[in-house]
Amino acid sequence: MSHGTSRRPPPRVILQDIREFTVQIRDPASGRIVGTGVVISRGGIVATCAHVVRACGVEPLASREAQVEVYFPAVNHRSRLSEVRPAWVAAAFTDSEDDLVCLQVEGDLPLPADRVAVLGTAVESQWNSFRSYGYRQLEGYIGAWARGVILGEVEPPVGRHLLLDPVQLESSQIDAGMSGAAVLDIERNLVVGVVSETWIAETVTGKDRDTAWAVNAQVLDFSPLRVDLRSDSLPLAAAEPARVKPDLLGRAARVPAGRRMDSAPVPLPEWVGRDTLLDELDRAAGDDESLVVALVGFGGEGKSSLARRWVDRATGGGADGTFSDVFWWSFTERASADDFFEAALEFVSGGRISSGELPDGRARAESVAALLELRPFLFVLDGLEVMQHQTGDYYGTLRSADLHDFLTFFATPGHRSFCLITTRAPVLDLVRYVTCQQVDVPPLSLAAGTRLLRKLGIDGPDSSLERLVRDWEGHALTLSLIAAILTKRHQGEIRRVASLPAPDPSLSRDQQLRQVLLDYDACLSDAERSFLTRYSVFRVAVPDEALRHVLPERPWEEADTEWQQARTVMFQHLLAARILRRDVAGRTSMHPLVRDFFETRATDREQRRALHLRAMRYFLGTTDEPERRRTLEELEPTVEAIHHACGGGDYEAAGNLVHAVLYAGERGLITRELGAYETALSVFGEFYPDGELMRLPLMRDSASRGWVQHEVATCLQMLGRLREAGVATRRAMQAFKAVGAWHDAAVSCQNLAELYLSLGALPACGAIVTEAFALAERSADQEDVLVAETLKGALAHFEGRTEEAGRAFAEALRIAREHTPIPALYSSSGTRYAEHLRRLGQDDAARRVHRTNLTVCRAAGWRGDEVSCLVGLGDLALDRGDAAAARRAYDEGLLLARGIARRDVLIRAMLGACRWELRFGTPGTVPDVQLAPALRMAVADGYRIAEIEGRMLLAQLHRRSGENESAWAELALAEQMSVEIGYHWGQHDVRAILRELGGEGGG
Question: What is the pTM of this model?
Answer without folding.
Answer: 0.84
